[in-house]
Amino acid sequence: MNWQDRWETTMMRNYGVPPLLLVKGRGSRVWDDTGKEYIDLIGGIAVNVLGHGHPDLVAAVTDQLQTIGHTSNLYATEPGLELAERLVELSGAPLGSRVFFCNSGAEANEAAFKLTRMTGRTHVVVASGGFHGRTMGSLALTAQPAKQDPFRPLPGDVTVVPFGDSAALDAAVTSQTAAVFLEPIQGENGVIVPPDDYLTAARAICDRAGALFVLDEVQTGIGRTGAWFAFQKFAVQPDVLTLAKGLGGGLPIGAMVAFGDAATLLTPGSHGSTFGGNPISTRAALTVIDVIEREGLLERVLAAGAQLTAQLPEVSGGKVDAVRGRGLLLAAELRGVTSAEVDLALRAQGILANPVAADAMRLAPALNITDVDLEDTVSRWGAAFDTLGVN
Ligand SMILES: Cc1ncc(COP(=O)(O)O)c(C=O)c1O
Fold it and tell me: What is the CATH classification number for the domain harbouring 370?
């Protein structure tokens, strides 16, 4: 049986059959089972921030597994403690900030959702098109009817407002509101960047109502936009920050960081996770942070992002109007061609990107993507768009 048939036979039908079976990765390149090589511009959906097989990550994880691999939270480990301290430090947070570790973005938001209930209020406000995960709690915050409708009733008391609309947010948040959940940039919804003053407005609205401001940086965090966290560009401080994806550089980990009074809301016994904060994933995350610092990757992200933003439209034969996004969280805006067609054409030329919307291709490559990878990306991208013909 070929691998597609094996997938069809045994895998749950929640995913379609994937187009490729990948067998190897090095840096920003991956290979499929036929030996064909691709430039990986999606990086496991904005996860592989150091690319594939980074030697420091391999060494750290191997060493940690040989030293002590799992303890549960019945016992402390040094990597877990150190990562919590680093995250608090990187977020520029005041003393008293606290971290909860879990294993994914959905779990980080689930934890944040539960934390907000400890305020004694239940009402939360979210943005339409937002994505916060697929568990029942995080799905309740994911204001995308197609994903939610089959699973109703969901945990309730959620008001949905248009993303980027401060006036609508202001009207929805009341003295009964426990929290506002937002992404700084909506990633899954197609890399949608809100107006520059949106996060500061949201902060002020939350302050006015005594509501918690929860920022979901699962996709934007850990350098993806050229800052450790996207909120830092806007000089706002959330009450709660959720992280996952790039944090572990490919190892599964999620985190919720709570600041100030919000850090005191969860009490002993109120939440937990067997694997959360395990030494392997936290050691991986510490390595990711070290490499980003040592290799100056925050600056690299901005330069690489600017290069792709400028050059991809130039080689697209008029079929890419612009590239939107920040840093290395980008979407090419397509004209006269669907993302499904572009996806096929790119793959044929050896590029993996993500058809995030019918008219947009998402790019979220490794933060350490090399100059050679970028040059090859631009030439392969051009070749792919040449095969799509003239409008
Ligand atoms: C902003 C955001 N939050 C939460 C999630 C859910 O993360 P996970 O798939 O790790 O549960 C995602 C995943 O795409 C995301 O982009």
Answer: 3.90.1150.10
Band of pLDDT at residue 122, cut at 50, 70 and 90: very high
Give the domain extent around 332. Answer: 3-53+296-387
Residue 130 CB–ligand 1 contact under 6 Å: no
Q: Is 187 touching ligand 1 by the criterion CB < 6 Å? A: yes
Q: Which of 252, 273, 294 is the last residue of a domain?
A: 294
Q: What is the pTM of this model?
A: 0.98
Is 36 catalytic? The answer is: no
Task: Please tell me whether residues 113 and 235 are part of one structural domain.
Answer: yes
343 lines ligand 1 (CB under 6 A): no
Q: Give me the residues paired with residue 40 across strands.
A: 352
Q: Tell me the backbone φ, ψ of residue 373, rounded to 5 degrees.
A: -60, -40
| pLDDT band (50, 70, 90) for residue 390 | low
- Does residue 9 sit in the same domain as residue 98? no
Under 8 Å between Cβ of 187 and 152:
no
Tell me if residue 71 falls in helix, strand or coil. coil
Q: Annotated catalytic residue: which of 100, 113, 131, 213?
A: 131
Domain count, the chain: 2
Same domain, 18 and 132: no
> How large is the average pLDDT for residues 91-119?
95
Q: Which of 54, 118, 80 is nearest to 268 (CA)?
A: 118
- Whole-number Å distance, alpha carbon 218 to ligand 1 midpoint, is 6
Q: Which of 111, 80, 26, 131 is nearest to 248 (CA)?
A: 80
Element spanning 89, H or E: helix 78-90
Which one from 245, 319, 373, 385 is the annotated catalytic residue? Answer: 245
CA of 181 to the centre of ligand 1 (A): 13
**Could you report the per-residue pLDDT of 71-82, keeping only the tens digit for each?**
999 999 999 999
The whole-angstrom separation of Cα 322 and Cα 312 is 8
Q: Give yes or no: 245 in active site.
A: yes
| Pocket flag, ligand 1, residue 256 (CB < 6 Å) | no
275 is catalytic: no
Query: 294, 324, 349: which is the final residue of a domain?
Result: 294
Residues 22 and 65 in one domain: no
pLDDT tens digit string along 243-270? Answer: 999 999 999 999 999 999 999 999 999 9
